[in-house]
Write a structure and sequence with these properties.
heteropentamer; A mainly alpha; B alpha+beta; C mainly alpha; D alpha+beta; C: MetI-like fold; 2 domains; two-stranded antiparallel sheet; 12 helices; 76% helix; globular; D: alpha+beta; Rossmann fold; OB fold (Dihydrolipoamide Acetyltransferase, E2P); six-stranded mixed beta sheet; 8 helices; elongated; binds adenosine-5'-triphosphate; binds magnesium ion; transport (chain C)
Chain lengths: 275, 420, 292, 354, 354
């Protein structure tokens, strides 16, 4: 396309790209470097760019402050809820994309609506219910609650993906004697992978980063990493190095997960089939 | 009586307790293994941010959760007690199997015991993590400006220390005023009492528009010219840091920050730090009073209650007070400070002891409505400082809202005694 | 195709998801609705009583609620257009051919802000915006601007929240729009290129109509998230200074979790939910007419 | 035993009727082609046979059994789609294997059938490729292979060659014919392409607006179209149609009286194919005209001749000297002339009353 | 003044070269058709002229001006895409108007041009419809209309008819030809379709693997292909090729000595088109064979004759009596025979040395 790719235009574009990258990365960079500073260096005014890095903060949060445990909690919760959302959400998305039945639009909308419900609304009732059921401070309570926002995302994105798969593939399989379930599992699901991947990343990110449910429902044993990060903030001194070290530790798994799946990121985000 | 004996029936009992990330708790955590080894009782502590501690406990109690030992801020005691969430300490003191003969309630600073642990004359909790407001000052800066001693009165701060120390990007004073409990407890109340003001009058109506209260609040407003810009965003951490970085000459902060400002790891001015009691106002010193007691939760079962009491009794005991102090905690035991040599190591001790003699327990009202009222004070107190409302108007608004809360609670129609 | 799908099959596909959401979504919501009809304060459970719609009346006449709503709306109307504009710019740049490696890197870096824990963003904001030791003020200093008191000044704090909201969500918007751009058939873009050199005209007249579904998705998500915005302002400013950054979710959290007035908080939250659903319906109705 | 029988098949989409009482008999082993203009219902009819559309009325029987209510998989048919509908994430082998696997065929049997199909279709080298790594023609063969391994009673093809380029189309056409003679299965084939229809079909079904217009062998349709529609549809370029008047024992076309064609009562239109119009010297023949355009295709040329009765296309030798502007005479051999009534029904073809 | 001149155009995709030094001269008002097998670079070449692809080497001039570095919109060309690329959200009128509007034409002028184009293309009734409400043929005309209103120097068409059905294709082809004679603009047209290429082109460019194989009028290419590739590509069905040996003054094909063809040194292959093979009684002619398949298309039939030198396709009358199994004799008229060397270059065509 665009034949006369003039040098100057390319330069401008390159500069713009660098600016975008810098915009995105700089705060992250600052977070990581702050995590390598001692408290005195971190609070230096004006801020210092060159300093002797120390891993002490990491050491401290990982081995003294149970951040390691909370990271594991976070991983358990995020992985389980994402898996559950995909397992429950993709068949529903397939049904919404492929079957005709009354009230389909409303059902779709209802699914999506759950994404709008603020945790502030649900947190307390859920707190009481989970106590009744003995689920308080368990991973399960969080996993279930996180479905309120992961399931809509999966359904939203995947419905769209399923719609973009030619119906003829379904029909071909139907003629071969495949059941609907089989068609879904063997034909459509593999082809909807970009959507599944993206909705998984987003589900993972959203549930990984969730704070409100986490601190109300999982105060101790199941405490997740973000809840852990804000714990430090409320000490009488604010240990920025520790907070940023924790933050870095929190962000890294998401990042790895997101980067792995980023190939699908764009293809899967065509959230266009809203009707 | 021995701890081991008393604990025998409860070996293996686990008790749940809430801690904060503060020096006093870290000290207790270091002491825990000794207790656990002696008793076989397991203490499961959860560290939460102060901001969440109240909510955490309220939800736990409301839902009949598993907390066995309550952590009570001075302002929560009324709330907790009125809801019947706590077990009066009488229950245990009268139980010879559990009560340590050495308990010696009289050894606690009476003001502290009363303020942190008691409600309506009934004692529930034993003071554990105790603070008093102190004046931390940077001797080097003061000397450089020609002062050889800290200010004794707020008026001096305003008239001489302020102008002399505020220059070259340095400030004379910083008052933590962030919009949370800091605003109401550390900032707002700090300038009410020394000037003769108070939140409520005898009829439980707002006293904020009394001339004394107004004078105090106005004084705070005027003093802002000697404080760093954006003081309303300063929480304890920012304030302490400003002092530790040498940008501010004086702060009025909790005793608990002592270790922070004198440690070279966290402070550039460690060698210059000196401590004095807070300056006095027209109505006297009336320093800020704060701290936490530990009490046994009513929702715990019998074994947990007993084990909880044993822990509370042990960790606040006379015998452990010295060790607690050494590890960074601040005990409320008078006996702990008897040794004059201690004042050499812990410069804050004289000021602390002095302020605990002059404090007001109702520095902040301690009744069940405080959580609602503090939110009002936080909002309008910061608005006042920001100049969004005048002192007079702000005080009036707080007063009205506060009275509405109290009316709702039934103080005005005689349903409730006017207790603090 | 539609011929042989039995009800049982449909049910089997949809049932689990519906059941799960009813369980975790609807049940607590109904409980919240029920509580919103009560005077219910956790610390005063003895005084709990049924009050009908009184809480709703109180909320709807409470200036604090409306101020928070107003603030939230202000945030939305300032930051979302900026996010969309910047996102679109980024999407367009990434959509253009050439500099492939560079663009892949950029796309990867877009994931960073999205993936950063929201609560952490608030903390990071505190560190970076601090008047004294904040790096942003240092950088402003390099270009000769005096240090700005971001956290302590009401207006600046609000601006701070906007900046960070933009930082965090622009990449997401950009990725959604990029996906939307990829749905424009290449020939159609080329047909337009034969008519004009101007990127802007191509965008305005040819690409934009294809982007409408993506834009609606962005609007819906951003509306929901703005109304839910809690973690970041909470950790950054706690709603302060004053009430400068007390957005609606921060307010509700304060009423529910700090004043323990669950009845009132539930009423507020339900009003907010109704509003969100109304807005989402509106977007879908209004914008989708244009496409079909 | 794999005959297909449709009786009075109706199909409604909402209130729109796509098929109007279609009845058809297709014998075992026959190669039947459905043709008709776009939207006439060819695909709908094919899909109704497959069971992919539920019909609104009538019955479908396959191999003597009424399958009207049965699911597609229970009808023992295989379908090749226009877009092939290969499973993109499976290799060629897996594509062919899928149906057998889910129907629980024995592995040895599956392997044997795949090997056999791959041999017939010359797909052996590609068995482990994914469809995206194949050319159009190869994909097409995989789609056929997927159908073959099922060994169905009936093969259904919906425009299977339309995505291929001209050369490949010819090649695939020949392969399909060979396949048909090898398998001797019943095949139903939908196409837009004249050449395909004419060369492959045992029987052509011409559809028009959801109705069967005519059923017959290609030559039957070519020589004896039952309606003007069929006459115009079969043959390329299409038949020339001229408005005529049948007056007192003579046929008049415009001002000219055409002697050759015997008058038939009620005839209002005369049809003659370009390849049947005789080119004679100007002034002689049945009609005169002027060449307005010559299209040369190499071996043949088409002359567009303007006559007073309208434009007539005439096929000539590729090296004809006649060109734009030449005056020519046209002759209409009586045995090549078709006459149609006002209702579009053929009255006579090649001088023989229909 | 709208001549198009390409000099040594190269195009690389990564390391793969899609165009190899293509040079072409296209005169003002000429109708040029690009043909060639799939993937040979037709589209790439067309898009390079439009400026939609930046070329890696060489120059493109339009109307005497070097436009190599210019943006597509500055080249004054209009393109009709295979998929039409109509703006789906605009009405027909808006589609046509778009280019003029954004280029700031006066409203009156715009209206006039649209009206004119709509008249020429008979689109008046559809001006306010969206593309989705139009049939394929109508969409195609809108795409052309969008090109016309621009009044460009050069029209570019990339397989514009390939999505239409056969009937519509013929119709649109004629319309395009009429348009060309009316506008007299330079038109460059890519197609897969033999008939289109032969009938529409003033000049055909045969591309093969990114290189120009031959440029010439349709008849030149038909009668005098410069290479075996062109000979095989032009004409449908394709030319028959037979391996020969040129031995001591005789041409031998298999075991048979073919007398008619004069031997040419170096010739290794003989080509003759199906329409030029003579059918004679068995035993006579140049070669004998047996009919293995008859494909009847109505007016014509193609006989597939198996000979000892390979299969030869022969065109016969549609009503020929010869069928499967018949023994026939084939004659190769000397003036229709082409001979090719080992390198694929034509040595003689119709007895005339190339
Ligand atoms: N799902 C559908 N809903 C409504 N109408 C339909 C549907 N499918 C087809 N039709 C209509 O039914 C008629 C027959 O369509 P069908 O697809 O069978 O035509 P066709 O002969 O295959 O055409 P083509 O040659 O274009 O493929 C058309 O008028 C079409 O518009
Ligand atoms: N964007 C591209 N990237 C890499 N290779 C390409 C690209 N576009 C085309 N090619 C290659 O360039 C060659 C020429 O392609 P082009 O599309 O011009 O062929 P074509 O003659 O138009 O074929 P068709 O008849 O199938 O349309 C092909 O080998 C093709 O694979
Ligand atoms: Mg069809
Ligand atoms: Mg092409």
């Amino acid at each position: 396309m665009a034949a006369p790719v003039q040098r100057r235009a390319l330069w401008a574009e390159g500069l713009l790209l660098v600016a975008i990258c810098a915009f995105c990365i700089f705060p992250f960079y600052w977070m990581v470097t702050t995590s390598l500073k001692t408290q005195v260096v971190a609070l230096e005014s004006p801020p210092v760019w060159v300093f002797t890095p120390t891993l002490a903060n990491y050491w401290e949060v990982l081995f003294e402050d149970k951040v390691g445990v909370s990271l594991i909690n976070s991983i358990i919760v995020a992985v389980c809820t994402t898996t559950l959302a995909v397992v429950l959400g993709t068949p529903a998305a397939y049904a919404l994309a492929r079957f005709e039945f009354r009230g389909k639009q409303d059902l779709w909308f209802w699914f999506i609506t759950n994404r709008f419900v603020s945790p502030v609304v649900l947190a307390f009732p859920v707190f009481l219910i989970s106590r009744e059921l003995g689920l308080r401070d368990t991973h399960l309570a969080l996993i279930l609650m996180y479905l309120t926002f992961t399931l809509p995302i999966v359904i939203w994105i995947c419905t769209d993906q399923f719609r973009s798969i030619p119906r003829e593939l379904d029909e071909a399989a139907l003629l071969e004697g495949a059941s609907q379930w089989r068609i879904f599992r063997s034909i459509c699901l593999p082809l909807a992978m970009p959507g599944v991947a993206v909705s998984s990343i987003l589900s993972f990110i959203f549930s990984w980063n969730e704070l409100l449910f986490a601190y109300i429902l999982a105060p101790k044993a199941a405490k997740t990493a973000p809840a852990m990060a804000v714990t430090f903030m409320e000490g009488y001194d604010v240990p920025y190095g520790k907070i940023m070290a924790t933050s870095t530790l929190i962000v890294i798994p998401v990042l790895i997960f997101a980067l792995i799946a980023s190939k699908h990121l764009v293809r899967g985000l065509t959230m266009g089939a809203v009707k | 009586w021995s701890l081991e004996e008393a604990a025998k029936p409860y070996a293996g009992t686990e008790i749940e307790v809430l801690f904060l990330d503060r020096p006093g708790y870290n000290a207790a955590i270091k002491m825990l293994p000794e207790f656990e080894a002696a008793t076989g009782i397991k203490v499961n502590y959860t560290t939460v941010p102060y901001e969440n501690a109240l909510g955490e406990q309220v939800r736990d109690f409301a839902a009949g959760g598993d907390l066995d030992v309550a952590l009570i801020d001075l302002v929560w005691i009324g709330n907790f007690a009125e809801n019947g969430w706590l077990v009066p300490s009488e229950t245990f003191i009268n139980n010879a199997e559990l009560a340590d003969p050495e308990l010696d309630m009289a050894d606690f600073f009476p003001l502290v015991l009363d303020a942190f642990g008691s409600w309506n004359g009934v004692n529930y909790g034993l003071p554990f993590d105790n603070y008093s407001g102190l004046l931390f000052y940077n001797r080097c800066m003061l000397e450089a400006a020609g002062f050889d001693k800290p200010p004794a009165t707020w008026q001096e701060v305003m008239d001489t220390y302020g102008p002399a120390l505020t220059k070259d990007g340095k400030y004379a004073y910083a008052l933590q005023s962030k919009r949370n409990e800091t605003q109401s407890a550390d900032s707002f109340a700090r300038f009410l009492w020394p000037f003769g003001g108070s939140f409520l009058n005898a009829e439980f109506k707002s006293n904020l528009n009394s001339p004394e209260s107004q004078a105090g609040l106005q004084f705070r407003q005027d003093l802002m010219k000697f404080m760093p810009e954006g003081i309303v965003a300063y929480d304890h951490a920012e304030t302490v840091n400003a002092f530790a970085q040498g940008d501010v000459a004086m702060i009025t902060e909790w005793s608990a920050f002592y270790s922070t400002v004198v440690s070279p790891e966290t402070s550039k001015v460690a060698d210059c730090v000196e401590i004095a009691p807070e300056p006095t106002g027209p109505a006297g010193r009336k320093p800020a009073l704060g701290g936490f007691s530990l009490a046994v939760a009513a929702q715990a079962d019998e074994a947990e209650q007993a084990a909880g009491w044993l822990f509370i009794q042990w960790v606040t005991s006379k015998a452990k007070a010295g060790q607690y102090l050494e590890m960074g905690g601040v005990p409320a035991r008078q006996s702990a400070y008897a040794d004059p040599a201690l004042a050499e190591t812990y410069k804050f001790i004289p000021a602390l002891v002095e302020s605990w003699k002059e404090g007001v327990p109702e520095f902040r009202p301690r009744f069940a409505e405080w959580p609602a009222i503090t939110e009002i004070v936080q909002e309008w107190g910061t608005k006042m400082m920001l100049g969004e409302v005048s002192i007079d108007e702000g005080a009036k608004t707080i007063g009205e809202k506060m009275e509405a809360v109290l009316a709702e609670a039934g103080y005005y129609d005689g349903k409730k005694p006017l207790a603090q | 195709m539609t011929a042989h799908v039995r009800r049982k099959t449909i049910l089997a596909f949809l049932g689990p998801a519906v059941a799960a959401l009813v369980l975790v979504g609807i049940a607590p919501l109904l409980y919240a609705v029920w509580k919103s009809l009560h005077n219910f304060n956790l610390t005063k459970q003895a005084q709990t009583k049924f009050v009908g719609l009184e809480n709703y009346a109180a909320v709807l006449t409470d200036p604090v609620f409306w101020q928070a709503m107003g603030r939230t709306a202000t945030l939305f109307f300032i930051s979302v257009p900026i996010q969309i504009a910047l996102g679109l710019l980024i999407a367009i740049v990434l959509h253009r051919p050439g500099l492939t490696v560079f663009k892949t890197l950029t796309r990867l870096s877009l994931v960073l802000p999205m993936a950063t824990t929201y609560a952490v963003v608030g903390l990071l904001a505190q560190v970076m915006l601090n008047q004294k030791y904040g790096v942003i003020n240092q950088m402003l200093g390099w270009v000769g601007i005096d240090p700005v008191n971001f956290i302590g000044d009401p207006t600046n704090a609000f601006i701070g929240v906007i900046i960070w909201d933009i930082w965090q969500w622009t990449p997401f918007v950009a990725l959604v729009l990029l996906a939307g751009l990829s749905t424009v058939p290449p020939e159609i873009e080329e047909a337009a290129q034969l008519e004009t050199k101007s990127q802007w005209l191509v965008l305005r007249y040819v690409q934009l109509p294809f982007l409408i579904p993506s834009l609606v998705a962005v609007l819906i998500l951003r509306t929901a998230d703005t109304l839910k915005l809690f973690d970041m302002p909470f950790t950054m400013t706690r709603g302060g200074p004053g009430s400068a950054t007390e957005f609606i979710a921060v307010l509700i959290e304060r009423v529910g979790n700090r004043q323990f007035d669950i009845g009132m908080a539930s009423a507020q939250a339900i009003i907010m939910l109704a509003l969100t659903i109304f807005l989402a319906r509106l977007y879908i109705r209004f914008f989708y007419r244009e496409v079909n | 035993m794999a005959e297909v029988k449709l009786v009075g098949v109706d199909k409604f989409y909402g209130s729109q009727q796509a098929l109007h009482g279609v009845s058809l008999d297709i014998a075992d082993g026959e190669f039947v082609v459905f043709v008709g203009p776009s939207g006439c219902g060819k695909s709908t009819l094919l899909r109704s046979i497959a069971g992919l559309e539920s019909i609104s009325g009538g019955t479908v029987s396959i191999g003597g059994q009424d399958v009207t209510g049965r699911a597609p998989s229970e009808r023992d048919v295989a379908m090749v789609f226009q877009s092939y509908a290969l499973y993109p994430h499976m290799t060629v082998r897996e594509n062919m294997d899928f149906g057998m696997k889910i129907n629980g065929f024995a592995p040895a049997d599956r392997e044997r059938r795949i090997a056999e199909a791959a041999r017939v279709l010359q797909l052996e080298p590609y068995l482990d490729r994914k469809p995206s790594q194949l050319s159009g023609g190869q994909r097409q063969r995989v789609a056929i292979g997927r159908a073959i391994v099922k060994q169905p009673k009936v093969f259904l093809f919906d425009e299977p060659l339309s995505n291929l380029d001209a050369k490949l189309r010819v090649q695939m056409r020949v392969e399909l014919e060979a396949l048909h003679s090898e398998l001797r299965a019943t095949m139903i084939y939908v196409t837009h392409d004249q050449v395909e229809a004419m060369t492959m079909a045992d029987k052509i079904v011409v559809l028009n607006a959801g109705r069967v217009e005519q059923v017959g062998s290609p030559m039957e349709l070519y020589h004896h179209p039952r309606t003007e529609f069929v006459a115009g549809f079969i043959g390329a370029p299409s038949m020339n149609f001229l408005d005529i008047r049948s007056e007192g024992g003579r046929i008049a076309c415009g001002e000219t009286v055409i002697g050759t064609a015997a008058p038939v009562p009620g005839a209002v239109r005369l049809g003659i194919r370009p390849e049947h119009v005789g080119l004679v010297a100007a002034g002689s023949g049945d009609m005169g005209g002027k060449v307005v355009l010559r299209e040369t295709l190499g071996g043949d040329a088409y002359l567009y001749v303007r006559t007073e009765a309208g434009q007539v296309v005439v096929r000539a030798e590729g090296d004809t000297a006649l060109d734009h502007g030449a005056e020519v005479g046209l002759s209409f051999p009586a045995n090549r002339v078709h006459l149609f009534g006002a209702d579009g029904v053929t009255l006579s073809s090649g001088g023989v009353a229909a």
